[in-house]
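Pasting two entries for a bug report.
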Amino acid sequence: MDNARRPHFGVLIVLFIGLFTLAGCAKMTNGTSNNPTSSVATSGTAKILTKADQQISHRQINAAIKTLKTADTSNTTVKNLLTGLHHYQKAATALNKNQLSVAKTYFNTLSNYQASTDASFNAAKTALIKEYQQVKQANSYYNTARDELSVHDLTAAKTNIDKLDKIPASHPVIKQLQKKTLAMKQAIMNYEASQSTSSGSESSTVTESDSSSSSATTSSSTSSSSASSTSDSSSADSSSTATSDATSSTSSTLTTKQVLSNFRAAAGVSFAQDDQFNVIKQTDKYYQIEVMHDSEDTDVTNLTDIYRYYPTSGRVTKQNSSTGEFE
């Protein structure tokens, strides 16, 4: 009986070993079958990133974002690059609209974003930040030239216009500002031409007066005696005149540039960058200032506002366009 049972145990052991071997082979087969799938997925992401990099290098940011969204967005590289491109897009949009106050926040975020190490993205980011700095500088030159022109400081205005023209037109906003200075240049030329004409007429008048001075010499001796008799009364008149001049001079100690600067600070109005300011009237109490607006909106009919600025009190009133009264 014992001899009959032994072969059965041997068979069981052989069967057990066989099953164990088959299970191991199946596991190994399954493991090796997953590797091709993983490598294919990795290869697909790499191709998408390569395509996106090419688009970024050509500043096709919207296209690059669409391309990256076709990849596995849970991939860290893809996710970080997408985030960086969104920051880039916001900053670029604000810059294209020349909204520098809005752009400042976006560019701070973009400058501080370091999560993506993509070379094409970082190169595009650096280029955009450089353009932002140039646009800021161009706006500064343009605004300064406009303000100086409004107070007839032509030399300073021309200096800033020249500085603006020297900035490389690497961004559309810079091109627009440089184009807008053409009107300033024409205004300066017209003003200089008018001054040249008036100075010519003044010089001819002086020549005529010089020719008549010889005839007036003979009468000067006779008038000298009468001049001495009236010296006492004229000195009294001059003292009273000096007093009135001193009183009026206190209201004219401010330069036009200072008046406009103080007016803008006291008005409590957010004026546009393209607004132009001119002092059109001055009294001992107030300055009357004309503000001209530059608007491309066809619905805007009133492009000029008139204000009165009282420097002593800092009060500002605005003319009602319907009634003409200052309120």
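Entry 2 (this is the one that rendered wrong in the viewer):
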Amino acid sequence: MRQGVLLVSWGLILQLTLLLFLCFSKCHGGSLGEIRGLAPQISPSENSEPFLPTLGPSPMMPLTPLTNGSIPALSGLCTLNFSAVETLFSITTTDCWTSFAPYLANVVCCPQFDATLVTLIGQSSKFSGMLALNLTHSKYCLSDVEKILTSRGANVRLQKICSIQSANLTEASCPVVSTDAFEGRVDSSRLLSACGKIDHVNECCDQVCQNAISDAAQKIALNGLPSLSGAAVSPEHLTRIDDCRNIVLRWLASKLDPPSANSVLRGLANCKINKACPLVFPNMTHVVQECGEVLRNQTACCKAMENYVSKLQEQSFITNVQALNCAASLGTKLQKANVSNNLYNLCHINIKDFSLQESGCLLPSLPSDATYDKTSGVSFICDLNDNIAAPWPSPSSEPVSFCNKTTKLPALPKATSAQKGIQMQNWKVPLFMSALSAIKLLLL
């Protein structure tokens, strides 16, 4: 039986491979080696419009609406109000679409999945009066949510991709669970005033809502504990504050309509994701050997650097600010390994080189949701101001930040319409990536 499954899988792989060759030979009259030439060449000095790459529907899925038409068999043991977040389920399905969820995980998919779960518990608390689930209940509910999403086209490994566990739906170590207890300890009017609607650009610097959330989390974390005034804060108490922050977010989601709650939660998530580089840096021994303190062969050095960066390009889409952080992190690691030459300048490394290729792009620092169209597939906005040189860190360099006025960040793209995504339906590189993703899944 196992052998039969393997035969079917390899048969699909052969069909997909043949499809790739036919697609590129007939549609472009060229070879697979010419893929890079298909990407639009954009000058960073141009006043360019944002680009919406279209991730063509996977060969594993028919070109139909984003659902398999089946009604998932739910546990019947989860009492959360799923209908309250129906719109968010649709958004999450598209943002976490099948084989592309791992590539959009850090910046789009997982923040949206998390926002949906927070809003779901918050909205349901209007009837239950509880801002958390017990562990048994949370297992049923998380399983049901995943069944709903995957039945509509989301990735079947969503929990693993986003590191979401049933315990994330509980109160964890936070001592306050009920809405009554929460509102008895927190200045709810101040919290709503600060977080009812946030400025997605300025919030990351001004932290008006974030500070209000932290204050509320600290207050409920102290419930049942003596005052910590003047005392050192223990790691256990810091963990409790973090757990209580989730309770605060759920309460906030209960006081806003689901779209507004989702907007606030995604805005707060953007502040967090742009603070660091999400890429995993592999071993750089070969780069250090070829590009060490005494540079003997520039060609060999740049080839080693190009090979290294190509490994980073296999990981995920990232935002332009994350790319700057990644460039700074990699440059610092190389400098600590006695690479003193500016390899980015020497080898012409741009910040977009840190994002997923072949159809890779940098997402705007405030990434938007993906959109789905039956004809063109899944689309999302790219920042076309990403063709700028990666900055090599210097001893005087300050950390990349939204709020550092001396840091030159890539400009945000202009507003656009969904029509641009439809116009890109004949761009074949995304179809190539979609097929490769399907093959990769079959090999797992």
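Dev reply: Rendering is fixed now. As a check, the viewer should reflect this: The chain has a mean pLDDT of 79.
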